[in-house]
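Hi R.,

As promised on Friday, here is the backbone we talked about, encoded as structure tokens. Could you run it through your design pipeline when you get a chance and send me back a sequence?
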């Protein structure tokens, strides 16, 4: 007998929906648009007054203001972010691209609290509309969630875990930026959850982290979808890490775990056209009210088969053997 979902059916709070703007978040995201364009900021704006859903963004912090775990995690993240990015040295250290990548990895092992690093060319189309940067490369960083904590989604403890990992991701990006600047190379950290100048999933895919999942999050074979990203834009000539495919896209096409677990039914069984690209897409207007009322949700991340401890690498090997026989 199928287990009942305690969060279904979902009814948004009237006081939250009274703040909903006239424009659809899906329209802002470009759902149904066949022409390519840059993304527009839809949520997590540094200044909520600059976006249509800004009042709903402010309400997120009022939905459960007394959650002890969440408040403690926010204070912990604030302490991490007290670490400032260092100054730019006058002279540039010169290395070959491969030597740069080796040095970056060694520095990360010694001083950066992240679990994954990739590097790729910075595509200007990954910048949000209105943003301009002249950096050549982007370093992408990933930090892994604690599996036991994220499994509690959408409870406050899971929301607190997401906040903690955003803090680690931000600290990682700041330390990489400081390291690059100390060697004479300009570097700009890009961290969440607030929207920065750069989309994070496209460069993560390009640098070999994995593939986009049905739930709209990146799936890495080792971490599943249970991790957070940050990045550093730089001109340092670091060798790139290659894009990799594992059969995750085909797996998602036949898997319905996250789709069925989503209380507001925001996850579609089919791909959609978004700004000229056919891809997995989560309905923003359905997702946001539940997200706001339940500590940022994360149910789809927690239930994803790839996110279960030890499962992802075995799945990747199984899919690789299947492709080899095809």
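Update: got your reply. Pasting your designed sequence below so it's all in one thread:
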């Amino acid at each position: 007998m199928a287990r009942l979902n305690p969060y279904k059916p979902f009814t948004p709070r009237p006081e939250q929906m009274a703040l909903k703007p006239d424009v659809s978040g899906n329209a802002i995201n470009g759902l149904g648009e066949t022409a390519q364009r840059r993304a527009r900021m839809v949520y997590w704006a540094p200044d909520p007054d600059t976006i249509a859903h800004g009042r709903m963004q402010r309400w997120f912090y009022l939905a459960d203001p007394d959650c002890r775990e969440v408040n403690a995690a926010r204070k912990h993240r604030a302490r991490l972010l007290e670490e400032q990015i260092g100054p730019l040295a006058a002279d540039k250290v010169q290395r070959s691209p491969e030597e740069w990548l080796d040095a970056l990895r060694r520095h990360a092992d010694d001083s950066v609290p992240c679990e994954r690093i990739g590097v790729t060319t910075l595509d200007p189309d990954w910048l949000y509309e209105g943003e301009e940067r002249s950096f050549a490369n982007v370093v992408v960083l990933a930090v892994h969630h604690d599996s036991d904590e994220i499994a509690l989604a959408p409870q406050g403890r899971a929301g607190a875990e997401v906040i903690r990992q955003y803090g680690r991701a931000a600290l990682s990006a700041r330390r990489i930026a400081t390291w690059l600047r100390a060697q004479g190379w300009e570097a700009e950290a890009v961290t969440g959850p607030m929207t920065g100048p750069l989309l994070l999933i496209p460069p993560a895919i390009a640098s070999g982290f994995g593939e986009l999942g049905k739930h709209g999050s990146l799936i890495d074979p080792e971490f599943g979808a249970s991790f957070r990203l940050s990045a550093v834009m730089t001109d340092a000539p670091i060798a790139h890490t290659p894009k990799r495919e594992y059969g995750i896209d085909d797996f998602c096409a036949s898997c319905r775990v996250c789709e069925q677990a989503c209380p507001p039914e925001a996850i579609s069984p089919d791909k959609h056209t978004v700004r000229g690209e056919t891809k997995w897409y989560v309905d923003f207007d359905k997702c946001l009210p539940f997200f706001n009322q339940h500590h940022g949700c994360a149910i789809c991340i927690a239930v994803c088969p790839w996110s279960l401890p030890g499962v992802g690498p075995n799945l990747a090997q199984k899919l690789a053997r299947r492709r080899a026989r095809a």
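One thing I noticed while checking it: Residues 14-325 form one domain.

Thanks again,
M.
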